[in-house]
Amino acid sequence: MAGHWGIQFSFVALILFVKLVSAEHSFENTAIVRTVDLGGSLVHVTTTYAVKALEDDSSIYTIALGEDEAKKTSWMQAKVKGQTVPLQLEKFGLSPNTGAFLYAVEFPKALKANGTANLVVETVQTHATYPWPKTAAQNEGQSLKYEADLFILSPYPTLVQRTKIKSQFPKIHSYTTPEGVDAFTLESPVTKSGATLTYGPYNNIPAFTNKDFTKSQQKRIAVQYEYGNPILEITRLERAAEISHWGANLNIQDNVWLHNAGPELKGHFSRLEYQSQGYFRRVAPHTLSSLSLHLPAGIHDVYFYDLNGNVSTSHIRYAPSVPKGSSSNHFSLFEFRPRYPVMGGWNYSFTLGWDAPLADYAGWDKESGKYIVGIPLQTLYPGAVVDEAEVKIILPEGASDIKFYPPFPAIENTISNYITYLDTTGRPEITLQYQQLTDRHVGVIYVEYRVPFSAHLKKPLAVATALIALFALAFTWKRVDTRIQK
Amino acid sequence: MAAEFDDVCLCARRLHAPCHASSSPLLLPLPRTTVSVMASYESIAALHKNIPAFSPYIPVAVLPYLAFILLSVTFGLTFYFSTIPKSTFPVHEVSVASLASILGGFGVVALFCSVGVYV
Q1: Are A249 and B113 an interchain contact pair (Cβ–Cβ within 8 Å)?
Q2: What is the ipTM, given to two decimal places?
């Protein structure tokens, strides 16, 4: 199975952690700027490293994340500023001496001594915020708290660094003013401008070579801010994509377990309060009353039901098909209302599925004699994190010589047998398990497989066999005399 | 497990990378398997985009009509089967039953696809 995660774990590098402590540095950070875009379930962090090489042929740059930050980071990408192609990220894991998680990137061209480059590292953190206060009444607002380390860790000395924390909504209730940072700045350690907090600039941050820096100098900062959208978590997502060659159809069905991770509802739910809020268009921010999803173009026969049955409170605006493999902006808009408003701490589970022409997703490679299909990994729910995802791709009966290429390596993948309508031997089913999917985990899982013509005849022949058995029964019945007396 | 400097250079040489005396031990080129995996995904994506779109052996629009015709013929043949007199060598019965079964098999598959159960 091929993967395209961009971060690979190198066992060779495992044995090299300790040497980082005593190694000399071939780079210097002239400036580091970290921008934190506060959200609900997801927090986007962009760190720009202005790097200067201290010796010739410097090509591999090491990035460090604090332990807490690394555990929350679910997606990571590094690029040279101005370029679109991301760099390969090599993950080295926890460095025991420094207590930081290390990653390495290789510049496309090695830098000469005093050569400079700007490296942009984007990460997405999940479960990095929590409601504060933890409970809220139905007519109260919603606030979240975000915590992070003050100083950006790096194995190279940094001349100047700053951290900007931006909130989508204007109100920031409180924030930490760090103390004891006089060694690094003579100005105010934090400034606030509207909905943006700027920590820094901090000068001459040494390279962290051991845990002493983390213990003695590193500070913890916290921001409490208003957040005006429901905080969505999908605790579990089960996606099944079933391919039918006879019907030239791709059916995708999502079973979703949705959780509102906002402040828990204080007191009881009042339908009267909810209705009046809707009438005056002042629905509380922690109430999920409706959602709009972008489904693929070209789909038809969308269905949406939960445990009680069909949920009729939905609208779908279909978009016409787009060519296979095209990066089109067209989408079908699905607006739905859960059966009940999902308050903070509440859950709602439902099933959403649709059919789509197989020609929009699959093709036939004449040279290899194989079909290649591209299955979307997930449907994005605005601002939501997917804690656990299971993606199943069910191939036609008789498929063989199967290879699959996910955009991100799965935690676990298996191929099993799946039996459904009119099956005899069953169909191959590829199952991929993922965790902590974010809005950046968009991609297509490619599967190539071979289905001979004879495999397509299995179903009609299976039905024909059942029918011939009935005919055989009738044939026998005609020749058996069941009369008691002749 | 600690690695001595010589081990660092040894690892570097195994990966065909330059080994700088003053370099961080992490300054090793990325393994070739990582690069080949990325290239593999990119190539399958490009191939998927360029190959002709899937086309079924029987057009989907024809399936409802095909289901109607085949199942009607199957029904007729079944009725006819019931009228065939017994004989020592039931060639006629077997042939009619076989033909009805084959047509019924394809008709049922077409029917399933027509009503939205895409088998």
Answers
A1: yes
A2: 0.84
